[in-house]
Amino acid sequence: MRFHWMACIALLCLAGTSAVAHAEVQTKEITYSHDGQSLKGVLAWDSSVKTPRPGVLVVHEWWGLNEYARTRAIKLAELGYVAFAVDMYGDGKVTDHPKQAGEWASMIRGNTEKWQQRALAGLNVLKEQPGVDASRLAAIGYCFGGSTVLQLAFTGAPVKGVVSFHGALVSPPEGTKLASKVLICHGGADPFIPAAAVDAFAVSMDQIKADYVINVFGGAKHGFTNPDAGKYGLEALAYDAHADARSWKYMQVFFDEIFGEK
Questions:
Q1: What gap in Å lies between CA 47 and CA 187, rounded to an integer?
Q2: What is the mean pLDDT of each run of 10 residues along the chain (262 residues)?
Q3: Is the Cβ–Cβ distance between 114 and 108 less than 8 Å?
Q4: Sign of the C-alpha dihedral, residues 118, 70, 129, 185?
Q5: Which among 18, 39, 84, 262 is most buried, taking Cβ atoms within 10 Å?
Q6: Given strand 161-165, what is the order of strands in its sheet?
Protein backbone atom coordinates (compact mmCIF):
# COMPACT_ATOMS: atom_id res chain seq x y z
CA MET A 1 0.00 0.00 0.00
CA ARG A 2 1.30 3.47 -0.77
CA PHE A 3 0.09 7.05 -0.77
CA HIS A 4 1.75 9.63 -3.01
CA TRP A 5 2.14 13.36 -2.44
CA MET A 6 -0.25 14.69 0.21
CA ALA A 7 -2.63 11.74 0.37
CA CYS A 8 -1.78 11.23 4.02
CA ILE A 9 -2.53 14.79 5.11
CA ALA A 10 -5.52 13.57 7.12
CA LEU A 11 -3.10 11.81 9.44
CA LEU A 12 -2.18 15.17 10.91
CA CYS A 13 -5.57 15.29 12.57
CA LEU A 14 -4.95 11.92 14.15
CA ALA A 15 -1.59 12.62 15.73
CA GLY A 16 -2.56 11.74 19.25
CA THR A 17 0.85 11.13 20.79
CA SER A 18 1.70 14.16 22.92
CA ALA A 19 4.98 15.12 24.55
CA VAL A 20 5.41 13.96 28.12
CA ALA A 21 4.16 16.78 30.36
CA HIS A 22 7.18 16.96 32.66
CA ALA A 23 9.93 15.39 30.61
CA GLU A 24 13.24 14.79 32.34
CA VAL A 25 15.30 13.68 29.37
CA GLN A 26 18.66 12.12 30.11
CA THR A 27 21.38 11.08 27.68
CA LYS A 28 24.46 8.94 27.94
CA GLU A 29 27.08 7.58 25.57
CA ILE A 30 27.28 3.81 25.25
CA THR A 31 30.35 2.11 23.83
CA TYR A 32 29.70 -1.20 22.11
CA SER A 33 31.33 -3.17 19.31
CA HIS A 34 30.74 -5.04 16.09
CA ASP A 35 33.19 -7.06 14.01
CA GLY A 36 36.11 -5.73 16.04
CA GLN A 37 35.10 -2.09 15.59
CA SER A 38 34.47 0.11 18.62
CA LEU A 39 31.20 2.03 18.27
CA LYS A 40 29.86 4.94 20.33
CA GLY A 41 26.10 5.42 20.40
CA VAL A 42 23.91 7.78 22.40
CA LEU A 43 20.94 6.69 24.53
CA ALA A 44 18.14 9.15 25.36
CA TRP A 45 15.25 8.54 27.74
CA ASP A 46 12.83 10.35 30.03
CA SER A 47 13.71 9.45 33.60
CA SER A 48 10.27 10.53 34.83
CA VAL A 49 8.66 7.60 33.00
CA LYS A 50 8.85 4.53 35.21
CA THR A 51 6.97 1.96 33.14
CA PRO A 52 8.49 -0.01 30.23
CA ARG A 53 8.11 1.86 26.97
CA PRO A 54 8.86 1.27 23.28
CA GLY A 55 12.43 1.56 22.07
CA VAL A 56 13.37 3.39 18.87
CA LEU A 57 16.67 3.01 17.04
CA VAL A 58 17.94 6.16 15.29
CA VAL A 59 20.36 5.83 12.36
CA HIS A 60 22.29 8.89 11.26
CA GLU A 61 22.81 10.46 7.85
CA TRP A 62 25.98 9.74 5.92
CA TRP A 63 27.72 12.49 7.93
CA GLY A 64 27.96 10.15 10.92
CA LEU A 65 26.52 10.34 14.44
CA ASN A 66 26.48 14.12 14.65
CA GLU A 67 24.48 16.54 16.76
CA TYR A 68 21.50 16.32 14.42
CA ALA A 69 21.08 12.58 14.97
CA ARG A 70 21.52 13.05 18.72
CA THR A 71 18.82 15.73 18.70
CA ARG A 72 16.37 13.37 17.01
CA ALA A 73 16.99 10.80 19.74
CA ILE A 74 16.25 13.44 22.37
CA LYS A 75 13.04 14.42 20.58
CA LEU A 76 11.91 10.79 20.69
CA ALA A 77 12.69 10.65 24.41
CA GLU A 78 10.52 13.74 24.88
CA LEU A 79 7.67 11.76 23.31
CA GLY A 80 8.14 9.04 25.93
CA TYR A 81 10.26 6.55 23.97
CA VAL A 82 13.71 5.22 24.78
CA ALA A 83 15.89 6.12 21.80
CA PHE A 84 19.33 4.88 20.85
CA ALA A 85 21.27 6.76 18.19
CA VAL A 86 23.68 4.24 16.70
CA ASP A 87 27.18 4.70 15.35
CA MET A 88 27.50 2.98 11.97
CA TYR A 89 31.08 4.12 11.25
CA GLY A 90 32.99 3.60 14.48
CA ASP A 91 34.47 5.73 17.26
CA GLY A 92 31.63 8.23 16.81
CA LYS A 93 33.40 9.85 13.86
CA VAL A 94 31.62 12.56 11.86
CA THR A 95 32.39 14.77 8.89
CA ASP A 96 31.04 17.84 7.10
CA HIS A 97 32.66 16.91 3.79
CA PRO A 98 30.45 15.15 1.21
CA LYS A 99 33.37 13.24 -0.33
CA GLN A 100 34.42 11.79 3.02
CA ALA A 101 30.81 11.03 3.96
CA GLY A 102 30.27 9.23 0.67
CA GLU A 103 33.39 7.13 1.17
CA TRP A 104 32.36 6.10 4.68
CA ALA A 105 28.82 5.25 3.63
CA SER A 106 30.06 3.29 0.62
CA MET A 107 32.35 1.22 2.82
CA ILE A 108 29.36 0.12 4.90
CA ARG A 109 27.00 -0.39 1.97
CA GLY A 110 29.60 -2.40 0.09
CA ASN A 111 28.97 -5.44 2.28
CA THR A 112 25.23 -5.93 2.79
CA GLU A 113 25.58 -8.62 5.46
CA LYS A 114 27.99 -6.50 7.51
CA TRP A 115 25.76 -3.47 7.00
CA GLN A 116 22.76 -5.35 8.36
CA GLN A 117 24.67 -6.90 11.23
CA ARG A 118 26.03 -3.54 12.35
CA ALA A 119 22.50 -2.16 12.52
CA LEU A 120 21.44 -5.27 14.45
CA ALA A 121 24.28 -4.69 16.92
CA GLY A 122 22.79 -1.30 17.73
CA LEU A 123 19.31 -2.78 18.05
CA ASN A 124 20.63 -5.35 20.53
CA VAL A 125 22.06 -2.55 22.68
CA LEU A 126 18.68 -0.83 22.68
CA LYS A 127 16.83 -4.03 23.63
CA GLU A 128 19.05 -4.49 26.68
CA GLN A 129 18.38 -1.05 28.17
CA PRO A 130 16.34 -0.75 31.38
CA GLY A 131 12.88 0.60 30.73
CA VAL A 132 12.68 -0.70 27.18
CA ASP A 133 9.77 -2.94 26.24
CA ALA A 134 11.65 -5.31 23.93
CA SER A 135 8.37 -6.45 22.39
CA ARG A 136 7.80 -2.93 21.01
CA LEU A 137 10.74 -1.78 18.92
CA ALA A 138 11.07 0.42 15.85
CA ALA A 139 13.82 2.12 13.86
CA ILE A 140 14.07 5.42 12.04
CA GLY A 141 16.80 6.65 9.75
CA TYR A 142 17.84 9.66 7.72
CA CYS A 143 19.53 9.59 4.29
CA PHE A 144 22.05 6.72 4.64
CA GLY A 145 20.17 5.84 7.83
CA GLY A 146 16.92 5.48 5.91
CA SER A 147 18.36 2.75 3.72
CA THR A 148 19.94 1.21 6.80
CA VAL A 149 16.63 0.76 8.62
CA LEU A 150 15.20 -0.87 5.51
CA GLN A 151 18.11 -3.30 5.49
CA LEU A 152 17.44 -3.95 9.18
CA ALA A 153 13.82 -4.79 8.43
CA PHE A 154 14.86 -7.13 5.61
CA THR A 155 16.80 -9.27 8.11
CA GLY A 156 13.60 -10.13 9.97
CA ALA A 157 14.78 -8.16 13.01
CA PRO A 158 12.14 -7.85 15.77
CA VAL A 159 11.07 -4.32 14.86
CA LYS A 160 7.39 -3.60 14.43
CA GLY A 161 8.09 -0.83 11.98
CA VAL A 162 10.75 1.30 10.32
CA VAL A 163 10.66 4.87 9.05
CA SER A 164 12.92 6.22 6.31
CA PHE A 165 13.31 9.99 5.99
CA HIS A 166 14.81 11.01 2.62
CA GLY A 167 16.63 7.68 2.47
CA ALA A 168 17.86 5.67 -0.48
CA LEU A 169 15.14 3.15 -1.26
CA VAL A 170 16.87 -0.22 -1.31
CA SER A 171 14.67 -3.06 -2.55
CA PRO A 172 14.12 -6.23 -0.54
CA PRO A 173 15.79 -9.43 -1.74
CA GLU A 174 13.48 -11.73 -3.66
CA GLY A 175 11.49 -13.96 -1.32
CA THR A 176 11.85 -11.66 1.71
CA LYS A 177 9.17 -12.24 4.35
CA LEU A 178 8.80 -8.74 5.73
CA ALA A 179 7.12 -8.65 9.14
CA SER A 180 7.88 -4.97 9.82
CA LYS A 181 5.61 -2.22 8.58
CA VAL A 182 7.35 0.50 6.59
CA LEU A 183 6.81 4.25 6.36
CA ILE A 184 8.71 6.16 3.67
CA CYS A 185 8.95 9.97 3.86
CA HIS A 186 10.40 11.17 0.57
CA GLY A 187 11.11 14.54 -1.01
CA GLY A 188 9.40 14.99 -4.36
CA ALA A 189 12.30 17.12 -5.64
CA ASP A 190 15.06 14.79 -4.39
CA PRO A 191 17.49 14.37 -7.31
CA PHE A 192 19.32 11.52 -5.55
CA ILE A 193 16.18 9.35 -5.50
CA PRO A 194 14.06 10.29 -8.54
CA ALA A 195 10.46 9.21 -9.16
CA ALA A 196 11.58 6.19 -11.19
CA ALA A 197 13.51 4.87 -8.20
CA VAL A 198 10.50 5.38 -5.94
CA ASP A 199 8.29 3.49 -8.38
CA ALA A 200 10.78 0.63 -8.66
CA PHE A 201 10.93 0.36 -4.88
CA ALA A 202 7.13 0.25 -4.69
CA VAL A 203 7.01 -2.55 -7.24
CA SER A 204 9.56 -4.57 -5.27
CA MET A 205 7.57 -4.08 -2.05
CA ASP A 206 4.34 -5.08 -3.77
CA GLN A 207 6.02 -8.27 -4.98
CA ILE A 208 6.68 -9.38 -1.39
CA LYS A 209 3.26 -8.14 -0.23
CA ALA A 210 4.81 -5.68 2.21
CA ASP A 211 2.76 -3.37 4.44
CA TYR A 212 4.14 0.02 3.48
CA VAL A 213 3.22 3.65 2.85
CA ILE A 214 5.13 6.17 0.74
CA ASN A 215 4.56 9.86 1.51
CA VAL A 216 6.00 12.19 -1.10
CA PHE A 217 6.40 15.83 -0.08
CA GLY A 218 6.11 18.03 -3.15
CA GLY A 219 9.06 20.35 -3.74
CA ALA A 220 11.15 18.93 -0.89
CA LYS A 221 14.77 18.12 -1.65
CA HIS A 222 17.10 15.57 -0.12
CA GLY A 223 17.81 16.15 3.57
CA PHE A 224 14.54 18.05 4.05
CA THR A 225 14.36 17.28 7.80
CA ASN A 226 17.79 18.69 8.66
CA PRO A 227 17.92 22.44 9.38
CA ASP A 228 21.63 22.38 8.48
CA ALA A 229 21.11 20.67 5.10
CA GLY A 230 21.99 23.80 3.16
CA LYS A 231 25.38 24.29 4.80
CA TYR A 232 27.08 21.38 3.06
CA GLY A 233 27.39 23.07 -0.33
CA LEU A 234 25.25 20.59 -2.27
CA GLU A 235 22.40 21.95 -4.40
CA ALA A 236 20.49 18.70 -3.94
CA LEU A 237 20.17 19.34 -0.18
CA ALA A 238 17.74 21.76 1.42
CA TYR A 239 15.72 22.02 4.61
CA ASP A 240 11.94 22.18 4.27
CA ALA A 241 10.21 23.13 7.52
CA HIS A 242 6.75 22.00 6.40
CA ALA A 243 7.95 18.61 5.16
CA ASP A 244 9.99 18.19 8.34
CA ALA A 245 7.05 18.92 10.64
CA ARG A 246 4.55 16.85 8.67
CA SER A 247 6.81 13.83 8.33
CA TRP A 248 7.51 13.86 12.08
CA LYS A 249 3.76 13.87 12.77
CA TYR A 250 3.22 11.02 10.31
CA MET A 251 5.88 9.06 12.20
CA GLN A 252 4.02 9.63 15.46
CA VAL A 253 0.77 8.32 13.99
CA PHE A 254 2.67 5.33 12.60
CA PHE A 255 4.13 4.60 16.03
CA ASP A 256 0.71 4.85 17.66
CA GLU A 257 -0.45 2.18 15.22
CA ILE A 258 2.42 -0.28 15.52
CA PHE A 259 2.83 0.09 19.28
CA GLY A 260 -0.88 -0.06 20.01
CA GLU A 261 -0.99 3.33 21.72
CA LYS A 262 -4.09 5.48 21.91
A1: 35
A2: 42 41 83 95 95 97 97 97 98 96 97 97 96 97 98 98 97 94 98 96 97 98 97 96 98 97 54
A3: yes
A4: negative
A5: 84
A6: 25-34, 37-46, 82-85, 53-59, 132-142, 161-165, 181-187, 212-217
Give the 3-state secondary structure of residue 220: coil
Query: What's the whole-model pTM score?
Result: 0.91
SS3 assignment, position 70: helix
Q: What is the pLDDT of residue 23?
A: 67
* Burial of 106 per CB tally in 10 Å (0-12, 13-18, 19+): exposed
For helices 112-127 and 144-154, angle between their N-to-C axes, nearest 10 degrees: 80
CA dist 139 and 254 (Å) reads 12
Give the number of other Cβ atoms within 10 Å of residue 42's Cβ: 20
| 164 in Cβ contact with 184 (< 8 Å) | yes
